[in-house]
Amino acid sequence: MRDKMRMKIGIHGLTSCYGCQLKMACIEEILEVAKNFEIVYWNMASSKGEIEKVDIAFVEGSVVTERDEEELKLIRENADVLVAV
After folding, report:
1. Architecture of domain 2-84
2. What is this structure's pTM?
3. 44, 21 in Cβ contact below 8 A?
4. Alpha-carbon distance 57 to 39, whole Å?
5. Domain boundaries in the chain?
């Protein structure tokens, strides 16, 4: 049944310049990606603020503050796969 559903992804930024996320937002293929995946969290592209359960979480940036560390732990708890960008 899972193969008929689009995988859920989240794109997160910790302490960073957000350059990788900006690059993702500017690629023409992002619309093709959006057809195959459901982007449920992308703070740069949406005001939705709650981290939810995803199949894949992409995380850009470094853990610099305690807040970053707590956010990363929450992201990891809610992701089947975590990808550092």
Report:
1. 3-Layer(aba) Sandwich (3.40)
2. 0.76
3. yes
4. 10
5. 2-84
Q: Whose CA is closest to 50, among 68, 21, 71?
A: 71
Judged by phi (left if over 0) then psi (alpha if -120 to 50, else beta), residue 51 lies in beta
Q: SS3 for the chain, per residue?
A: CHHHCCEEEEEEECECCCHHHHHHHHCCCHHHHHHHEEEEEECCCCCCCCCCCEEEEEEECECCCHHHHHHHHHHHHCEEEEEEC
- Half-sphere exposure of residue 72: CA atoms within 13 angstroms, side-chain side: 17
Q: pLDDT tens across 41-82, in order?
A: 777 656 567 888 999 999 998 999 999 999 999 999 999 999
Residue holding tokens 């939705």? 48
Q: CA 27 to CA 3: how far, in whole Å?
A: 26
60: burial class by Cβ within 10 Å (0-12, 13-18, 19+)? buried
